[in-house]
Specification:
By secondary structure, the protein is an alpha/beta fold. About 40% of the residues lie in helices and about 20% in strands. A hairpin with a 2-residue loop joins strand 20 (about 475-485) and strand 21 (about 485-490). Helix 3 (about 100-110) packs across helix 4 (about 120-135), helix 7 (about 205-240) packs antiparallel against helix 8 (about 245-260) and helix 16 runs antiparallel to helix 18 (about 570-600).
Length: about 600
């Protein structure tokens, strides 16, 4: 017997500013759904999610939430007014006995519940909002960019949590690896139409390209038919006075159909141009270190960066990645050691804090008011890689329309702000690009284009990112900042770094006469030759998974030990019982998986 949907949208229409966002949209979210919600920036993903959550009312249609179904919505800019600390906000509505659920989420997501709201960063506020949602364990979770402002370890924790939950969720994210791991269906918003495929994000790009190819083929056939009918109409005028009026009307209908078709939004016309060629040696640092009080950010560290290198800096939030980048470029002085910059450097910086954008300026003013981009005597043109260009035309290259040119920067979405910052960055010739979290809020297509541009860029790239897929695609070297001031250089991208850090330490070199013989593995080291890379990585992370599950089971058991809980709060008792059984089952599965992988590794 088919189960009733958790959420049902029927014939939804919504219009903003005269343009329809959706028209006649219908969709269902079923129990257990794990859905990726994808589409270009500005296509309406967040708006659709707000309609699902009941925060935006459609102009027409019906939104039906099944009786008794609880939902949780994580928005991009949560309102924490009225709360003293992040923990107060996250625990609001929970019993004191359930506060441990927030503590567990806070530990995994890496924020301090005691942090005062007025001193918390935007990322900390978002993590508190996510913890608030997870602690309530709703049956349907609506998650809008939950990985933004999470470091890679926290993303891994959230992946593990969502992979084990029985709740349904709809997920907006730019993080390909996150979407591939978690989703089993895809909702694709494209020009006001929402399509669904019963495959996760892994199959999205092939599906999209096949859909667009079929659409192009149909459009070409329609164009050919219109041309043929138009030729007949012209010839018919000279051949006879009385024409077939029905065929003429059919031609008019064909033209109306063609004009009603909405063209796909093109990709941003982004371009990078290298400035004068830098010296072969771009940056060399020897023995640099940094500390703030008793906290060591960087122990003595050496690095040589050559022209054309693509170096990714990874590590937990607060490990010092941005500080290290600023030391490398000379913006921050090290406590010890030397930094030598190469010759002829022209540096362009993409700042994760968007500090180069004034929220009170218009997009027009943001470009024309930049001294490096202004054209002398012309308030309507900007200098783009040495060539004057009208400001509106340049904004259109980055997918902004005419109406947005005079809009304030503060009105832009996160993805639009990222595109505007890229517009400022890419107008200037450079030979050293510093990109601090450029992937936040960008859609998949723009990320693809940015990756291609970085691949073709003649200069050097320093990249800070938590997007594992993007690092794999771009970086040829990874500097891992793993805490306590340690920074280690690995060849390759994120996957290569993960693979190398799991390898056993090499054995001591054999005597010269015996170097042709391979050294035997130490007796205490279990060989891993029988495992794939994915299995090696999974075996490495399983102990932490087991430890977390055991801690959660202990807290749930303690919570349920109250003999009056069932009588006083039967709904909470049932919820805790379900959570306990889920975690016990997950623990048993994880233990079995660990034993299986250990046996396979041991041969």
């Amino acid at each position: 017997m088919a189960r009733a949907p958790l959420l049902q949208l029927s014939d939804i229409s919504l219009t903003y500013g005269g343009d329809p966002v959706f028209d006649g949209l219908s969709l269902n979210v079923q129990p257990g759904d794990r859905v990726a919600l994808v589409g270009r920036n500005g296509s309406g993903k967040s708006t659709l999610m707000k309609v699902m959550a009941g925060f935006v009312e459609a102009d027409k249609g019906e939104v039906v939430l099944s009786a008794g179904v609880s939902t949780g919505y994580m928005e991009q800019d949560p309102d924490l007014s009225g709360f003293a600390t992040l923990g107060d906000f996250a625990r609001d509505g929970l019993d004191d006995s359930e506060g441990y659920l927030v503590d567990m989420a806070a530990e995994g997501l890496k924020f301090d519940p005691d942090r005062p709201v007025d001193t918390a960063s935007g990322g900390e506020r978002r993590r508190a909002a996510l913890a608030r949602l997870l602690a309530r364990s709703p049956e349907l979770m609506l998650l809008d960019e939950p990985t933004n402002h999470l470091d890679i370890q926290a993303i891994g924790w959230l992946e593990e949590y969502l992979s084990q939950t029985r709740a349904a969720f709809v997920l907006i994210s730019h993080d390909r690896a996150f979407l591939r791991r978690l989703t089993k269906a895809t909702l694709w918003i494209d020009r006001g139409q929402v399509r669904r495929q019963e495959r996760g994000f892994e199959g999205f790009e092939d599906w999209r390209e096949a859909t667009w190819a079929a659409e192009d083929d149909a459009r070409h056939k329609l164009d050919r038919k219109i041309k043929a009918e138009a030729r007949w109409a012209v010839e018919g005028i000279s051949a006879r006075r009385k024409r077939n009026q029905g065929r003429v009307r059919a031609l008019a209908d064909l033209r109306a159909e063609r004009s009603s078709q909405i063209r796909r939004q093109g990709t941003a016309a982004m371009a990078l141009e290298s400035g004068p060629t830098s010296g072969k040696k771009v940056i060399e640092v020897r023995g640099i270190s940094k500390a703030f009080g008793d906290r060591v950010i960087l122990a003595p560290f050496d690095l040589r960066i050559q022209r054309g290198d693509r170096i990714a800096f990874v590590g937990p939030n607060g490990a010092g990645k941005t500080t290290l980048i600023k030391m490398l470029t000379g913006e921050v002085a090290p406590d010890e050691g030397t930094v030598t910059l190469g010759t002829n450097l022209e540096i362009a910086v993409f700042d994760q804090a968007r500090a180069a954008l004034n929220p009170n300026q218009t997009l027009w003013e943001s470009l024309t008011g930049d001294p490096d981009m202004s054209v002398s005597g012309r308030a309507d043109q900007v200098m783009v890689r040495g060539v004057p260009k009208h400001v509106v035309a340049y904004l259109k290259d980055f997918l902004f329309d005419d109406g947005q040119a005079r809009a304030p920067v503060r009105s832009l979405s996160g993805g639009e702000k990222a595109r505007l910052l890229l517009a400022k960055l890419m107008a200037k010739p450079s030979n050293l690009l510093v990109m601090d979290e450029p992937t936040n809020d960008l859609d998949v297509e723009t990320l693809d284009l940015l990756q291609d541009l970085l691949g073709e860029y003649d200069g050097t790239v320093l990249l800070v990112s938590h997007d594992r897929d993007f690092i794999d695609r771009v970086a040829d070297t990874t500097v891992a900042m793993e805490g306590d001031g340690r920074a280690t250089v690995y060849a390759g991208g994120w996957s290569d770094y993960q693979n190398q850090r799991q390898q056993p330490e090499p054995a001591a070199p054999a005597p010269a006469a015996r170097q042709a013989q391979p050294a035997a593995a130490p007796a205490t080291e279990k060989p891993r030759e029988g495992l794939t890379f994915t299995e090696k990585h999974r075996l490495e992370e399983l102990p932490a998974v087991l430890e977390r599950l055991e801690a959660e089971i202990a807290k749930l058991t303690e919570f349920m030990s109250d003999p009056e809980l069932f009588t006083k709060a039967p709904a909470k008792f049932e919820k805790a019982s379900l959570a306990l059984s889920e975690r016990q089952a997950a623990l048993a599965d994880a233990e079995e998986e660990w034993m299986s992988l250990e046996e396979k590794a041991a041969g």
